[in-house]
Structures are given as C-alpha cells and as structure tokens.
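User: I'm curious whether this sequence folds into something compact or stays loose and floppy. Could you predict its structure so I can see for myself?
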Amino acid sequence: MTSSRMGSSFARAGQMLPPYDTRETLRALAGVLARYAPRTVIALGDSFHDRGGPDRLGADDRRTLAGLQAGRRWLWITGNHDRTLPDDIGGEVLDDLALGRLTLRHEPLGGALDEIAGHLHPAGKVRLRGRSVRRRCFVTDGRRCVMPAFGTNPNVMCYLDDIFVYLRARANDAVPRGRPQKREDKPEAVAKSESSCLGQRS
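Assistant: Here's the prediction. I'll summarize afterward.
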C-alpha cells in the first residue's frame, strides 16, 4: 500500500476537518488484511501526513495499528512526507527494498527500471453520455508500476489534476525528477475550486 497519510495535520493548520481519515484508513486496511491474510505488509511511503503524524495518532488508533501488525512482518518505506519514523511505530523502517531485480520505493525513478512505487496517486477518469467517474488506479508500462493512494486524505484528491499534469510531463521527460522549482499562478477559478474541495472558506 502507499500514501495512507495517517495522522492528519489539517486541524493543527486551522482546517477543521473531522479527524476520521486515519480511522477510516485503518478500517479499510483491516478489511484488506482480513481478506488476504498476508504474512508481510509493505507500506510504500507517505504512510503519515508528515513527521509528526505518528505522534498525532490517538490511543485507539495506535492500538488498532499494533493489532494489524501483530503476527506478520511490517515494513515502512519512507516517503517525502515521512522521511523519519519513531522507533515505537512498530515494524521495520527502510528507504527502499530490493527483491531480486524488483525494487520497491516511494518515488518512481526515471529510466528502464523494474520497480513498484507510490507518490503520484494515479486515478482514471471515464466520461460517458455527459457524465464522468474518477477512481484510483494502478499505472504501469510493463516494468514499472505506480500504485494508487490508499488513504482518504482530501489533500490528495483535491489536487488530482495537478498530479496528472506532473505525471504526464514526467512520462514525456518534460520535467526532471523531483518537485518543480517554479510554476505559474493558478487562475482564480481554479484556486476557488481547490479551496472549496478542501472545505476552506474564501
């Protein structure tokens, strides 16, 4: 799984969103683990909203996470939002994981590599008869696979258009790996739409 983004910092930043995203993510994860009963779980980075995310987990969420980890190997791959994780979070913490020719990491690299990564939060959009549906999806070129985000954090879902512009530009080698240093200001209508999606008032 990737980008579960637990321990949201929205409330700390003054955005009064209900603190249920972590609980819903853990509930969804529990369902997946119950269905497939894996012996190993590998989290491909951005498992927490930021470095302080683990400290913001409530006692109930901590106990739930510990219960999910019990009896299986649990590997945390670090991401750009959670470069470091505390020792008491459970499991093992790695920068990436090599399994033969295949590498599991948070941010996909350029070039012909056999890898599974996260970071980009791909989604697909289907339009039919004037209506459209957008859902998370896997993206692959046969050698690399980018996984969809697992969490429910609106800070991801409200910026899907930006993410896909970046993904297409990366695929065409129009921009280098990493965060672009410069960008144009967004039109006012786009900024208002994003604010509305995030539940912010003008």
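Summary: Residues 107 and 178 are 9 Å apart (CA to CA). Confidence is low (pLDDT under 50) at residues 13-18.
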